[in-house]
Amino acid sequence: MRSTNLHKIQFDGSLLISSEQCISELNSRYAFTVIGGKARVIDTWDSDLKLVTKEAFFAMFANRLVDDNGKYISAGEYWWHHPDRRQYLDGVTFDPSAGSSNSRYNLWRGPSVIASAASSCERLLWHLEHVICGSNQNCFEYLVNWLSLMMQKPGVLPGTAICMLSAPGTGKGIAMQYIGRMLGPNYIPVTHIKDLTGRFTACLERAVLIFADEVSWTSNKASRSLLKTLITEPDRVIEKKGVDAFKVRNCAHLVFASNDSNAIPAEIGDRRYFVLEVSDRKIGDTQYFSELACEMNSGGPEALLHYLQQRDISSFDPTKFPGTSSRVRQILHTLSPVAQWYFEVLVDTYDSEVINNEVPKEHTHSVFMRWHNKQYGTPGANIAALTQELKQFGVTQTRPRSNGGRTRCYTFPTGEAARRNFESVIGGSIDWHLY
């Protein structure tokens, strides 16, 4: 069963001295292009996009001379001026949809393995269902459909990212390594936030699947914004050192793995993150992981590609994923101060100082300000901002008559309705007794 990278290039420099073979041999590895108004040579030898200057290209082959009608010139110069050199005059693109024109060099070259039903991927599928998804059938169906969309239509962004939460040793890494075998150079593992949101992210130029393993997120809003863009925006700008920035199609499917309770920047109303609580049932089971690795090295990725490509996903909507308690916990970690305060009010069984149906706005704001100063040592949001945030939880405004006048008040939902409203905004149920 073939498990090697289908994209490996064969190149024989000894053939360059022949005028009959020089062009075809150099064309097998190199191509001329223009990026940012500058002439460059694309070197397709390995998974990274290497752009070579004219001077460097000539120097590389200065010791390979070609007989050009009695005149000996370097192989690089001979190729540069030859009418049959391979060229892409409109630059570089990354388009797995195969819809790009021949005038652009397409970084996408398809899966790295050949789909086959001759072998098995049953161990990997069992691992995804019972370990990665914790035996939750709805989560498993969503995850497999998400992977099927990636392999059937790699140029279509799902608009969502997968986040796996667990202690080390559960098998997140080997699962991603197995899946990544299908994509070869289009599978990009990263371990630092700058690899995703930094200035120089050339490693992502041909990414179809990105695995961010134990990437630590900070409270930096710019980084969170860039991450959201990577998940949902159709284009991405690539900047390589020494080369003008250029735009490529964004086909990045993101998977995060972490044992951090604040693993992802999920926020209220954000439908980008599907969060899984990975089971620890196989931690320390060396025989289990040995058998899984054996399947991976014996045609498993080929069988997995066949399985995913044959799966019917015609009715799959990646933005509609199952709610999980793990995702709710991630959102609770990122609540704004106003939402955090209101959550604590609801946890405390409707603090009688606040939740009394109609409460004067000034009094409510005063209670919130005391809480904020205790939590953060600074003043909190003003009344207008407090009103705007509370509105999303079903808190309305009223001006009832009192002592011959009208007092501006908040009308709070009462009883279980208040908690249900909060859960609706969060996007999942909360076990209130745990807080």
What layout of secondary structure does this protein have?
Layout: H1 22-27, E1 30-35, E2 38-43, E3 50-52, H2 54-60, E4 65-68, E5 71-74, H3 75-81, E6 87-88, E7 92-93, E8 105-106, H4 122-132, H5 137-152, E9 161-165, H6 172-180, E10 187-190, H7 194-197, E11 209-213, H8 221-232, E12 235-238, E13 246-249, E14 253-258, E15 273-277, H9 286-296, H10 300-310, H11 325-333, H12 337-347, E16 358-360, H13 361-376, H14 383-391, E17 396-398, E18 401-402, E19 405-406, E20 409-411, H15 416-426
Parallel strand pairs: 1-6, 7-8, 9-14, 9-15, 10-11, 11-14
Antiparallel strand pairs: 1-2, 2-3, 4-5, 12-13, 16-20, 17-20, 18-19
Helix pairs in contact: 4-5, 5-10
Can you tag this structure with a few keywords?
15 helices, alpha/beta, Arc Repressor Mutant, subunit A, 17% strand, 3 domains, 435 residues
What would you note in describing this structure?
34% of the residues lie in helices and 17% in strands. With 435 residues, it is α/β, with parallel strands linked by helices. The protein has three domains: 13-89, no CATH class; 122-329, 3-Layer(aba) Sandwich (Rossmann fold); 335-434, Winged helix-like DNA-binding domain superfamily/Winged helix DNA-binding domain (Arc Repressor Mutant, subunit A, Orthogonal Bundle), CATH 1.10.10. The strands form seven sheets. A five-stranded parallel beta sheet has the order 10-11-14-9-15. Strands 3-2-1-6 form a four-stranded mixed beta sheet. Helix 4 (122-132) crosses helix 5 (137-152) and helix 5 packs across helix 10 (300-310). The radius of gyration is 28 Å and the shape is elongated. Mean pLDDT is 85; it is low at 1-7.
